[in-house]
Amino acid sequence: MFINGFYRFFLYVLILFGFLQCGISLRVYRPFPNEKEYDFVKKMDHIVIQVNGENRIQMAVYDSYFFGSESLTNEYGPLSYLIRKELSIRESRYPLLIERGGKILVEEFQLVSLDRCFRNLTFVRLKAKVQIRGYAEEEIQYYDEIDSKVTNCYLTGSVLTLVPLLWYVPYNGFRGNREDQLNQLGRNALTELFTKLEIHSGHLEKQTESQKMEDPKPMPKPVPTKQEPVDPKLKDILDSL
């Protein structure tokens, strides 16, 4: 009886650890309203895109504490492809870069989730340089992190003891799981990169000038109509009232 109970408990723990080892789906892209469909990514020989140390099958790293580090492949493609896709389907947002050509060098891109039993640190670090032909080189740096208690230790303790589950589930829903955190930080980094690239390429400045040209002219003040003279007889009647 005791042995059967022990084996059940051991099997339960194995199943639990199997769930802990389940892979994370990495879906990093640039969130953009009214995303249009595209057929292919154009080849732009006059624009050099380089990502130092890029591994096409590893865009992020997840260290689960109980097991070894896990390499995560982005379902939307590596960073260099995401940049080419962005320039291809939204050329109007990068007028100077598309017209003159140049170079985009991503010196460093790290997207990591470190699980340390009682603490999980998820962070993204981006360093890039943009050189538009005929213009000065611009540097882009971005860092963000989420420090939380969303860890495998807390998850295991919550499932095995049940009582902490009342705290862990609402907290996990509030902070987001490891997958949510990695995807959110990755998307934030891409948004920052492309927004800065738009500024350096003149899109936002051009947009501001067009908005100024399209500002509606102030409406002229209405000229009051000339009042008709009052009939003297009617005036006498009104005065007598």
Detailed description of the structure:
The chain has 241 residues and is α/β, with parallel strands linked by helices. 42% of the residues lie in helices and 21% in strands. The chain has 8 helices and 6 strands; from the N terminus they run αβββααβββααααα. Strands 1, 2, 3, 4, 5 and 6 form a 6-stranded mixed sheet that branches. The chain is globular and about 70 Å long. Mean pLDDT is 77; it is low at 6-21 and 206-217.
The count of β-strands is 6
Strand content of the residues, in percent?
A: 15-25%
- Structural class per helix/strand content? alpha/beta
Low-confidence stretches: 6-21, 206-217
**SSE arrangement, N to C:** HEEEHHEEEHHHHH
Number of helices: 8
Shape: globular
Radius of gyration: 30 Å
Helix amount, in percent? 40-55%
How many angstroms does the end-to-end distance come to? 110 Å
What is shown here, in short?
The chain contains 8 helices and 6 strands. It is an alpha/beta fold. The longest helix is centred in the last third of the chain and has 23 residues, at about 180-200.
